[in-house]
Write a structure and sequence with these properties.
With 168 residues, the chain is of the alpha+beta class. The protein contains 5 helices and 5 strands. The chain has a 5-stranded mixed beta sheet with strand order 1-2-3-4-5. The longest helix is centred in the middle third of the chain and has 15 residues.
């Protein structure tokens, strides 16, 4: 049996464990710098920076097992004039896949988007992750092939920010 619920501050260790498992799956195990304190601050204090849904799987023989999570935040479409939802992470451990858990998590986030009048739900997927791409397409998602994600981090971000001093 599957249960979904909104995460609470007590769930932060499990959320971080899922994030680390996702990073391992995505071949970046050393890339996670987030701490429990970061997640507690940004997900459960004002201003909230993200929301999270947790899944739990329970069969007749075991207690409920943490079975996945969907972590999302809001973005804004200037063209639509409305906030949308960006799904940052969707993860189900390998041994629990194929039970509809990912579908249920994605559907719950979609329901939140619809309830809140968000005109779109979007996320990123790695090019090599063909199982996820197939799953998302099966769920009705369309790959946006003409758009590319741009990112500035680390020293490049610091250098770019320093340029703002010239415009004050």
């Amino acid at each position: 049996m599957l249960t979904l619920r909104k995460a609470t501050p007590e769930d932060v260790p499990q959320i971080l464990a899922f994030i680390r498992s996702l990073a391992e799956y995505e071949r970046e195990p050393g890339a996670v710098l987030a701490t429990e304190a970061d997640l507690l601050r940004d997900g459960f204090c004002e201003p909230r920076r993200f929301d999270c849904i947790l899944a739990f799987w329970n069969d007749a023989f075991w207690d409920a097992e943490p079975a996945g999570f969907a972590l999302y935040c809001y973005n804004y479409s200037t063209w639509r004039g409305h906030a949308g939802i960006h799904l940052e992470d969707l993860f189900v451990p390998l041994h629990l896949r194929g039970r509809g858990i990912g579908k249920a998590l994605l559907a719950r986030v979609a329901a939140i988007a619809v309830e809140e009048g968000c005109p779109r739900l979007q996320w990123d997927v790695l090019e090599w992750n063909t199982p996820a791409i197939g799953f998302y397409q099966e769920m009705g998602a369309a790959m946006m092939t003409e758009w590319r994600t741009m990112r500035v981090t680390g020293e490049a971000l610091t250098r770019l920010a320093a340029r703002s001093e010239h415009y004050d």
